[in-house]
Amino acid sequence: MTRRSLAALSLPFLLIACGGGGGDDPDNGGPPGNTTVSFQTDLLPLFQSECNRCHGGAGGLQLDTYEDVMAGGDSGPVVVAGDPDASLIVQRLDGSTPPQMPLDGPALSDNEINLVAQWIQEGAQKN
User: Fold this and answer.
1) ∠ CA(42), CA(44), CA(47), 5° rounding?
2) Domain boundaries, the chain
3) How far is CA 70 from the centre of its chain?
4) What are the residues facing 56 on neighbouring strands?
5) What is the DSSP letter of 56?
6) Fewest Cβ atoms nearer than 10 Å: which of 72, 73, 76, 107?
7) In this predicted model, what pLDDT tens digit does every residue of 13-71 receive, in sequence order?
8) Quick one: which of 89, 76, 92 has its CA closest to 119?
9) How far is Cα 44 from Cα 46, in angstroms, rounded to an integer?
10) Residue 73: strand, helix, or coil
11) Buried b (16+ CB within 10 A) or exposed e, 47-77
12) Number of H helices, E strands in the chain
């Protein structure tokens, strides 16, 4: 795991340990500390608002459903459950593998990228 992603995954846990974060408000630290990241509640709305204008099929990748995300696209799988560093979706979102996504828009916030990475680290569950 790279230093950046290790630090990114530590942030939610650090916020909770220090009394920050909590609630389901991403602007207030994301999901509660004892709750896993939910694909349906946390990620799907993010994908719908930031990714689906292109990835309703661009590059063969659709991000409309859990099954679509796990199927990947023309470049192969985008999620390696348990390993955000090996997951192409995280690499594209954080810019470590160009081109950075979203392609024709501003980059996602660190909190949004961390949410995707945390979901993958937690096993990329269908929840």
Assistant:
1) 110
2) 37-121
3) 13
4) 62
5) B
6) 76
7) 433 333 334 444 444 444 545 579 999 999 999 999 999 888 876 568 999 999 999 99
8) 89
9) 5
10) strand
11) beebbbebbeeeeebbbeebebbeebbeeee
12) 5, 0
